[in-house]
Every structure is written in structure tokens, then in C-alpha cells.
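Q: Given only this backbone (478 positions), what sequence would you predict?
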């Protein structure tokens, strides 16, 4: 009898491990597509005849759908089944990738990218919710999130390398077509590894809340994208941002009265999660902006070719993986609050090192030290932030918690890129008389110092507020 129980337990552990591998590789694919098109944009423009304004929407269409639909699909995963929503999202993502890879007209590529973003918005929060439910213990959950986050971060780094290699050696179309085997494998394997899970009690989707919440997020992301392209005072940016505020206020008013709200206000007001999500917002703003600004700086000031710039990011991925490996150990030894404060401060120090990269600096002496310190701090932070942001989520709301975290990351990233790139541009334009390289470096340095301040502010928020927020029993001490 004991032998049978032991065998069954080993089989269950094996299935959980295999499921984690599948979910991680899907996340790798999804994150890869966040930035895989960046290096290939000029080739897409030449092949399909994009105009200057239309080309930006190859990137923007994906982020608009992904950021705008996360909350809706995260709650749908709780109500309709997390495995079902995940598999639907992966299948949609793969099919849209095929459309992108075979596109013959600009509108086909943009439409395919929008559908890819929608598929990612379905799959990403559902995957994170499945991991949270598969690994309920705090220690094993932290390790699982560390692996998941490490693979995701590696996808973000490798996107630049893979894009440059495929575009240079084959065709930009392959950056979309390589996703198909991963999507197909996930659709075939995951139903055999993970049981369906959904909220235990029957509930209806809050349609008014879904419309208002999705509208607010879409308007916010669109306004931020437009602000990054033009300026904050431009009507095409200010109008959607004002609309986002109006819709958000209406959303809160509707949710306060709804019998089955899309996002219960008690969920948002749970202080431990609120502090973690607030810190994630600041952290994401800094790190998304850093990745964008550093890639531009490497190519325009330091003179790296696209593939070389992508390869220059490989140590960043290695540093993140090292930080991920240390993260659960740091939380176990120090507690969540001290570990997060330490990791944020390490990240801020790395950003300050990167801000000092000058036009005549070599890679090993100038870029690499700051990149490694920043990446280790980032790797230390991500798993602990994920655990904290999903603290207290249950069978009823794991998908919602994952969607809120993902939305915060996307919105923080959009805000960070729009604001810090604008600050760098303004600083550069004010110093053009000193020479283009000098002016560009000053703008880059100023923006990264601001990014470091944002991360340090996040550390201060965690130090001051996370310790006063009581986590549920079983969460590592803060």
C-alpha cells in the first residue's frame, strides 16, 4: 500500500515538473515576441512597403491587445477554466504567428500582431495561475516562480539575439514561424499533465465591469504608446489618457455596486498584494526603459551592429538566471521584505553604473559591469515580487491575481518607456551644440539615473509598507 502511494506521489511530482517545463517554454515564446520584431523592423518595412507611421504598429498592436485584454482574460480563466483559456490562447497565438509569417500586406502583419497580443493575454495569466495552484507551498512556489521568471527573462534577452540571427541569415518571417512547434507541443502535452481548474462557485462574468475595465486599459496603453511617439501634450495622446481616467473612475463605481464584480475591490485593497504590485509598477517602469535605452545607446552611440548589440545582452540573461537561483535562498534566509529591499538596491546600483557608459568605453570595462549588477538585482527581485503579488490568491481568484500582476508590469513598462525616453530626448536636444554623441550620452545617462531613483523609491515603499501588511499564513516572513 505504501509502495503504491509512493509511486502515485512520484508520478504526481513528475507531472507537475513536466507541466512546469511546458508552461515555462510557452512563456519563453510569449516574452520572446515582446521584442523579437525590434531588430527585424527595417526588413519588414522594405518587404511589405510600410510607411513610417504604420511600421510602429507592428510593435504597438501587440502591446495594445496584450496590455488591454489581460484583466478580462485573467478573470475569464478563473470562471471558464484556466487550462481551457491557456490552451485557447496558445492556439490563437500560434495561428496568428502563422498569419504574420505569411503576411503579404502591411495590414495583415499588424492584424496578426494584434491577435498574437490577444492570445498572449489569454495564455500568460492563465499559465501563472496554473503554476500558483500546482505549487501551493511557499517554498516550492518560490522555486517554481524562480524557474518561470528565469525562462521568461531569458526569452526577453534571446529575442534580440534570435531576431538578429534569423533576419540576417534567413528571413524576418522565421521569427514568427519558429513559434509554431512550441505552440503545437503545448496544446498536445498540457492536457495530459494539468487538470482543469476554475473558481469553485459558479459566477457570471461582470459584463459592464469587463467593458469599462478593458476600455480603460486599452485607452491607457494606447495613450502611453502615442505619448512615446509624439508628446504628452499631443491630442492623440492626451485624449486617450483622459478617457482612460474617466473609464477607470466609472469602473470603480460599477465594481463597488456589482454583485459579482470583475475585480472585487477587496482584492485590490489587500495591502500585502497592493504594496507588491506598486513596487512592481516602479520596477517595471525602470527596467523596460533601461532595456530600450541601452539597446539604442549600443547601436547609435557605441556603434554596435544589430546582431552584435543582441549578443551583448547575453551576459544580462546569465545574470538574471544567477539572480533567480539566489532569490528563493535570499527570501528563506532574510525574509521577503529584506530580500526585496536588497535586490532593488542592487538593481539601482547597476543602473547607476550603466548611466556612466561613455562613447569611448569598451564593452568589458564600460557596459558589462553595470549590465551584470543590474541583471543580478533584477533576477533577485522578480520571483519574490511574483510571490508577494500572488500572496493569498486561491482557487477562486488565481487567474485574476496573475492578470493584475501582468497588467501592472505592462502598464509600468509602457509608462517607463514613454516618460524616460521623453526625458532622454529632451536632455539630448538641449545639448545638441556640444556634439551628437555627447548629447545622446547625456540624455541616456540622465534617464538611467531617473530609472535608478524609481527603483530606489520602490525599495523605500517595500521597506516602509510591506512589513506593516500582514501576509497570510505560510508566506515567508517579511
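A: Predicted residues:
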Amino acid at each position: 500500500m505504501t509502495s503504491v502511494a509512493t509511486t502515485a506521489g512520484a508520478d504526481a511530482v513528475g507531472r507537475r515538473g513536466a507541466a512546469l517545463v511546458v508552461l515555462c517554454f510557452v512563456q519563453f515564446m510569449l516574452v520572446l515576441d515582446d521584442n523579437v520584431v525590434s531588430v527585424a523592423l527595417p526588413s519588414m518595412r522594405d518587404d511589405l512597403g510600410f510607411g513610417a507611421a504604420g511600421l510602429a504598429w507592428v510593435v504597438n498592436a501587440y502591446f495594445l491587445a496584450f496590455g488591454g485584454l489581460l484583466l478580462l482574460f485573467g478573470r475569464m480563466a478563473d470562471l471558464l477554466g484556466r487550462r481551457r483559456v491557456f490552451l485557447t490562447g496558445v492556439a490563437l497565438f500560434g495561428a496568428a504567428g502563422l498569419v504574420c509569417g505569411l503576411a503579404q500586406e502591411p495590414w495583415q502583419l499588424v492584424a496578426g500582431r494584434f491577435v498574437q497580443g490577444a492570445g498572449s493575454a489569454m495564455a500568460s495569466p492563465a499559465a501563472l495561475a496554473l503554476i500558483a495552484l500546482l505549487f501551493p507551498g511557499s517554498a516550492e512556489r518560490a522555486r517554481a516562480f524562480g524557474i518561470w521568471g528565469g525562462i521568461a527573462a531569458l526569452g526577453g534577452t534571446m529575442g534580440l539575439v534570435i531576431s538578429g540571427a534569423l533576419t540576417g541569415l534567413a528571413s524576418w518571417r522565421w521569427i514568427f514561424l519558429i513559434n509554431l512547434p512550441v505552440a503545437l507541443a503545448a496544446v498536445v502535452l498540457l492536457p495530459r499533465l494539468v487538470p482543469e481548474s476554475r473558481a469553485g462557485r459558479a459566477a457570471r462574468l461582470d459584463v459592464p465591469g469587463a467593458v469599462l475595465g478593458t476600455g480603460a486599459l486599452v485607452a491607457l496603453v494606447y495613450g502611453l504608446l502615442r505619448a512615446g511617439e509624439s508628446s504628452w501634450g499631443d491630442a492623440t495622446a492626451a485624449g486617450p489618457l483622459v478617457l482612460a481616467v474617466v473609464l477607470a473612475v466609472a469602473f470603480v463605481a460599477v465594481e463597488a455596486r456589482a454583485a459579482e464584480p470583475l475585480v472585487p475591490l477587496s482584492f485590490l485593497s489587500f495591502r500585502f498584494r497592493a504594496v507588491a504590485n506598486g513596487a512592481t509598477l516602479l520596477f517595471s517602469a525602470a527596467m523596460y526603459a533601461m532595456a530600450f535605452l541601452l539597446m539604442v545607446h549600443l547601436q547609435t552611440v557605441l556603434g554596435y551592429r544589430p546582431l552584435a548589440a543582441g549578443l551583448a545582452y547575453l551576459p544580462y540573461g546569465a545574470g538574471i538566471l544567477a539572480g533567480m537561483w539566489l532569490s528563493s535562498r535570499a527570501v528563506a534566509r532574510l525574509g521577503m521584505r529584506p530580500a526585496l529591499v536588497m535586490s532593488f538596491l542592487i538593481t539601482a546600483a547597476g543602473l547607476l553604473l550603466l548611466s556612466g557608459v561613455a562613447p569611448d568605453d569598451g564593452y568589458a570595462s564600460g557596459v558589462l559591469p553595470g549590465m551584470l549588477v543590474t541583471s543580478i538585482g533584477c533576477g533577485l527581485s522578480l520571483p519574490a515580487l511574483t510571490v508577494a503579488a500572488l500572496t493569498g490568491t486561491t482557487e477562486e481568484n488565481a487567474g485574476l491575481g496573475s492578470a493584475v500582476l501582468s497588467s501592472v508590469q505592462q502598464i509600468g513598462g509602457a509608462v517607463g518607456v514613454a516618460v524616460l525616453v521623453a526625458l532622454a530626448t529632451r536632455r539630448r536636444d538641449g545639448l545638441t551644440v556640444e556634439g551628437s554623441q555627447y548629447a545622446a550620452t547625456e540624455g541616456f545617462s540622465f534617464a538611467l539615473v531617473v530609472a535608478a531613483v524609481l527603483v530606489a523609491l520602490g525599495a523605500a515603499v517595500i521597506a516602509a509598507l510591506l512589513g506593516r501588511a500582514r501576509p497570510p499564513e505560510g508566506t515567508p516572513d517579511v
